[in-house]
Design a protein that fits this description.
17 helices, alpha+beta, 6-stranded mixed sheet, 513 residues
Length: 513
């Protein structure tokens, strides 16, 4: 799905035209000339972020990995976004065994950590062990644990051995950051971020800035930038204003509603990503008596107006969906995506059968720019069926512990992995994994369906996808709303930004001149 800049503006504003911000003619002309010219090397890219780096989330899909995952680190492969086929990175080639029980990775021999230590097959084994550990909290833990052993016959060959074929192994190989075992403690504490990526860590002021400088010995060649700075701006309005004020060059996941600030394409660039990896959902803790009855959860799902959220909050860039799958997923099904359309009579009937409407808290993280807007729509939707949804904003850093505490009733958040192999979402994503999911949902049938999805041979996987999705739609412990790409806002002079399938940005070829 391609969404034009004009469509984003029109959807976000509800207008057919946008007034131009005042700017002096000379500044506009200079910006136009800079935008038209090829980028030149040098300078520092300043990334504005609502949240600081959180070392505890370095092995998960998080704001931290999206910002610095491919600045300081590398992955073994990169997916081609058009074909979804793996392409070489630190692994230059690979051979899969005919029975699917091993994958031999042939590694580059010119990759070094920022300390100068050569990268070897032992570092692949270390990365797998980290991602398989409970301490890492990785959404790809199940895939990593499926690797029974990593053989290292020489420094540049790593053989991954599986008990059974692992359908989403390449998801792990793109997701898994290659961190340095020698500095593991410093990484956990946030004192240092040592990898093999194009930028090396140069220091940070906790809660304010983190600095990275060009790594001259990078195996792809030196980056064009001198460095990258992550600048923390905790207020969403001030964050986007920092682009206009020239204090930031790039905001990674901007709220489309705020695009009215950037109508002049000679000064600003707005890009809609090509990866629909973010699905926004309402979660329900099924252990809470108010939500234990599946009819209440289904009533909530019938009450929400997904089309309104897609249009008003995301300016048409998002797709309304009651299933977690992006259109690029092999599990995507149009009927599942539209299974729950807004039906207030059906919602009220389900609530009546379950004993009537009851007040519910709707929590959301303040570090998610679109969250207050989605929450307000959901609150209004639920009021239409008699549910008093009390909004409960929570600090971003405290939100995950809050969900794990069991104190939440309903909450709003994003989940990823709907664009990945379906096994990645079902077995590992926090809202969905069969053991220890955020909703405290536990059912032997659900566990069986997840295992079938993981184990099914290629000829039976479509049946496994359908059975799993049907169960999700029936149980509604995850109430999906929309699937959406990221929106990147930058100054017009910022060019060359790319990203992987998990939205880790790649600034190797970025210029700011």
């Amino acid at each position: 799905m391609t969404v034009t800049r004009r469509a984003l503006f029109a959807g976000a504003l509800g207008l057919g035209a946008v007034a131009t911000l005042p700017a002096c003619t000379s500044a506009v002309q200079q910006a136009r000339q800079a935008d038209a010219a090829p980028g030149t090397s040098g300078g520092t890219l300043v990334i504005g972020s609502l949240t600081d780096l959180d070392p505890k989330t370095i092995y998960t899909q998080s704001v931290t990995t999206m910002a610095i995952g491919l600045l300081a680190f590398d992955s073994l492969i990169r997916y081609d976004h058009a074909t979804l086929r793996p392409t070489p990175s630190v692994a230059r080639a690979w051979d899969a065994a005919p029975d699917g029980r091993s994958l031999t990775l042939h590694l580059r021999d010119d990759v070094h950590f920022h300390t100068g230590r050569p990268f070897t097959a032992e570092d692949v084994a270390y990365a797998v062990s980290v991602y398989a550990s409970d301490a890492a909290g990785s959404q790809l833990q199940t895939a990593a644990k499926s690797i029974a052993a990593v053989d290292t016959p020489d420094d540049h060959t790593a053989v991954l051995r599986f008990g059974v074929p692992v359908p989403n192994i390449f998801d792990l190989l793109e997701f898994m950051l290659l961190t340095d075992s020698d500095s593991a403690a410093a990484l956990r504490s946030g004192e240092s971020f040592v990898g093999t990526g194009p930028f090396r860590f140069a220091g940070r002021e906790v809660g304010a800035n983190a600095h990275f400088t060009r790594y001259a010995e990078y195996w792809r060649g030196p980056a064009r930038l001198d460095g990258v700075t992550l600048r923390v701006v905790r207020d969403p309005g001030a964050l986007l204003t920092s682009i206009r004020a020239g204090q930031s060059d790039l905001v990674l996941d901007a709220n489309p509603q705020a695009l009215r600030q950037f109508p002049d394409e000679s000064l600003y660039r707005v890009e809609t990503g090509d990866v629909f990896d973010a699905a926004y959902y309402v979660g329900a803790d099924v252990r809470r008596p108010e939500l234990a009855d599946v009819r209440v959860r289904q009533a909530v799902s019938y009450a929400v107006d997904r089309e309104r959220i897609a249009k008003e909050v995301f300016g048409g860039a998002a797709a309304a969906s009651s299933a977690p799958w992006a259109r690029s997923s092999p599990a995507y099904d149009a009927a599942a995506a539209t299974h729950y359309r807004r039906d207030l009579d059906r919602s009220r009937s389900l609530l009546a059968a379950a004993g009537g409407a009851r007040p519910l808290d709707l929590s959301y993280p303040t570090g998610l720019a679109v969250a207050p807007h989605i929450a307000a729509i959901v609150q209004s939707n639920l009021a239409d069926v008699g549910i008093d949804a009390r909004l409960d904003p929570r600090e971003q850093s405290a939100f995950s512990p809050f969900l794990k505490s069991g104190a939440a009733q309903l909450w709003l958040g994003p989940h990823g992995f709907g664009q990945s192999d379906p096994a990645t979402l079902a077995a590992g994503a926090a809202p969905f994994k069969p053991k220890g999911n955020l909703s405290n949902y536990s059912d032997p049938r659900y566990t069986e369906l997840v295992q079938q999805l993981v184990d099914a041979p290629a000829s039976r996987r479509s049946d496994a996808y359908a059975a799993y999705t049907t169960h999700l739609l029936e149980q509604q412990f995850v109430i999906d709303l929309v699937t959406a790409p990221a929106t990147y806002v930058s100054r017009a002079r910022t060019k060359g930004l790319t990203w992987n399938m998990y939205k880790y940005i790649d600034a190797h070829g970025v210029t700011v001149h």
